[in-house]
Known about the structure:
Layout: H1 3-29, H2 35-45, H3 47-69, E1 73-82, H4 93-96, E2 99-111, H5 114-182, H6 188-223, H7 248-270, E3 274-285, E4 295-304, H8 312-379, H9 384-418
Antiparallel strand pairs: 1-2, 2-3, 3-4
Helix pairs in contact: 2-5, 2-6, 3-5, 5-6, 5-7, 5-8, 5-9, 7-8, 8-9
Amino acid sequence: MNWDLLMGQFKKYYLLLFFFAGSYQLKAQLPVRNLNYFLDEGVKRSPLLKDYRNQQQSNRIDSMRIKAGYLPQVTASSAGMYAPVVNGYGYDKVLTNGQSLEALLNVNYNIASKRNINNQLEGIRLQSDSLKFAAGLSVLDLQKAIADQYITAFASQLQASFNLEVYELLKNEEQVLKKLTRSNVYKQVDYLTFLVTLQQQQLQWKQAGLQLKNDYSTLNYLTGILDTVAHPLEEPILQPSTLTENTFFIRRFGIDSAKIENQRRSIDFSYKPKAGIYANGGYNSSFVYQPYRNFGTSVGFTVSVPIYDGHQKKMLLNKLTIAQRTSSTYRDFFVNQQAQQLALIRQQIADQNGLYQQVSEQIKFTKSLIQVDSRLLQTGDIRIADFIIAINNYLSAQNLLRQTNINRLKLVNQLNYWNR
Length: 420
């Protein structure tokens, strides 16, 4: 066996280990970040939520415009006209008076009932309620996505840390195994088999580190954070919500129903008589007779009474009735679907908890087996292949335990999302 070649290979792997260990030491010095940090940053940086806030401000302006529209409207207007007649050719002066000038101040006031005005303001308020619900739903969706990605990134962090732990374990055993192989306790082929396992574990550790960087970058992308450094992540603490009212998602159906009723009242008001008064004052003259006396004023009123429109009002009300039935159908379906989904998620969480306990017991046995095999390895009383099998069993059990815990956390996150 070429020991110089083997030592050269191990010097290379040791340098790689030193490099990655240095990067993990640097990471350990970085400030630790938790789930709440990313949730808060995501909500603070979301352009969609800022858009909803701006739309709500616009709605408040619309409310003020409606109120202002029912105040007296004052306008100033002026118009002048000159129609020349040359050699008998021109407009008929009986119609045009030849010239005219007017400069008036007009005041118009539309008479509307307070109920009509309040109904229009109610429509704006319902639109604001829709925006608030949409903003709240966007917050829930964003936080759910960030929490899922945080859990994924934390799982990658655990995987990288565990792979490093196993690699260091195998590296320590390699030193003992090398001495025993030189003493002819183990065959060189067994030693080479162990080296292959050691190298594979090192590659898995490196791959886990790259996966952690990718998952952490995705987490920053969802949150809107411009940062290329992967900070250490705290373990997410998620507990199943005990809220049973489930009122948040149902709220949108209540808003839709209120909007339909508001539209129904708007149709009724649109078919009621309308009245308005106006007044103007100023100068209006054709300059034909005493133009200096053509200063004056006028007042008047307008009345509009709908009589017949081909039963369009009834058609519009029928459309709203159909829309109300559609909304009720969707609401009933959603309530049943939500109850079924929550029951399914709770059952899945219970199954994951049971599996977690079983895997935890298995890990205790596999870890004890590795400790026994490690002592036997130092005395040459166990085959290296058996030791490698024990290591692989431990790896499989730990991976299953982590995946079970990650699945449980994601299920809890999903439960808390729907159980509102």
